Protein 1
Amino acid sequence: MGKSHDRLVGIQLGNEIAECELLWDQAPNICNTIWSRLPLESFVTHAKICSHEIIFMLPFMMEGENMKIPKIGDVGWWGKRSCVNLWYNDPGPLGPLGPTALFGKVTNNLEGIEQEAKMVWAKAGKKIVLFRKT
Amino acid sequence: MSSFDIEKLCKDLEILFKMEWMDRPEEIEQLEGRKGAWDCTFAVHINCMRESQEVLEWIWLVRNALKNGHIPLDIAGPFLGKALTEKSDKIRRYYKIKELPDILKQVSLTLSEIPSYGDFIKVTDRLLLYVGRYNYWLDADLDWKTLSETHESLREKQGERVGD
């Protein structure tokens, strides 16, 4: 098992590219499943109750692990909807909605993701690509 | 239901899911023109989205109840089968679409006669993915920002609530 910084995931949303560090020690199964399937592409929608959260489905199912309350920059997995959640800023008065299977943390250019995410609220369906950065 | 039929159903679900992964299902485009009360297309679209979300909840609930040993397979199969039949019929009648209710109907028939735990999980996993993607397409087509802003602005202008 590599160290977190050995295997960074790139997140391309619109014109922005951010880096996500995987939490191999805390969510090894989710990290391994996602890492082994990269690159992955999907489209993004915005959460409706929790503020500042974008969502994108991945084409497989995984069990949850490392269930924790998310903070800004966290990346999680929601098994019921087979989707990744990314909190690009404060989750707002009604959020976060509960513990989520956290498996990553955006460590670079979260502000770029925020800019693009605001556009997703106005128009969903923006393409997102996850790829191996290192 | 023979294991061959279940294999074929799973394969069909996988093919459809892959086809629609980055391409919107055709019938969702048709749905955009469906007019409801007072020619309101938004109400039809958002209700269809909510309906498909309910389908997901049902599948998830029963599948997990079975996985966690809260209900036996001979209850889970027919129960979810019945729920999906009802949803299939309702979606067909209300929204005049075909693909989604056809798939739900096909799976409901299979679940009613499901031969093993493994097959139940296999079929419902694929159905969750297929319906999940379908639901995301419906979600992505709605302009939540404009809807939300319009709603807030009308509330401010009207300054009244039902019953006032």
Protein 2
Amino acid sequence: MYGALWRILPGPVWLKVIELLVLLLAVLAALFFWVYPWVASLIGVPDATVTQ
Amino acid sequence: MSESRHAQRANGHPRRVRRRRGPTVVGVLGEILITAGLLILGYIGWQPLWSATVIASHQRDVAAQQSAQWRQSAQTPAPAPDAPPDYSALSANPPVGATPADYATFGILYVPRFSASYAVPIGQTTDLPRVLNDPDRGIGHYEDTQLPGQPGNFAVAAHRSGPIGGNPFRDMDALRVGDPIYVETQDGWYTYRFRSFEYVWPTQVDVLDPVPHLAGQPGTDRILTMTSCNPKWAGSAERMIGYAVYEGFRPLGDPPPELVAVNPNVSASVGT
């Protein structure tokens, strides 16, 4: 999987490393701003109030 | 390269080289599992970062804006520096605000024990999506309980753990007897002193009574009650309750010096 990704990326090794870092940042941003908040909304929150 | 291939062919293993090149089912499965593990680790790292840092700092900003707005519109004259003001008469009979509209922000809670710059807006009702989970608020006032300064119980709720919101009561267990707790409203500053904890079942609403656990008593003392979930980070089978007792009142233009000394967002003079 990751080996295929490495072969698909164009350019010399130094360029591939930069491309990988950009991809990694993009994935992290998508996780932090969309995926994880969505997962958090599924998990729900422990109730903090007292009710009858 | 070509030499080693020839050598392997000569050894009689021509297929092995081709197999190593292509992805195997086990290899891809392993990579997927490692990736899934990293994603879950990422969530565990993201969750406290998000709630404790991003949302908490957003709540601080909202609180600072609200506070500045109140203090500018109040136009309370700054106290004369040579004569320390005497607020004892005012403290004995502090002003009580009008009942806020549902979901409206009407107060700000400051607890220096939680952090020096801690400030979280208090909204009316304990509605989950509109107050407790709302990044613009975070603390909810039980609408059937009394208001700051009113004899009786000013009871509020906030999250202590969980993936949504800034968890304003995250460090509730760090409170010690005598810790100051300040409530700022558009009328002024109410100072409370932390007194005690209690752990109750989620249905024990009598902690919200004007005199907690004494139904029907009108209550002459002014107390502040905080409710949150317990155990921390492990569901909400119980409730953690924190009680604080009213100490005094100060006008908006003259915030408590103890708070001014620690909180960089609270200044002694109006409009700065």
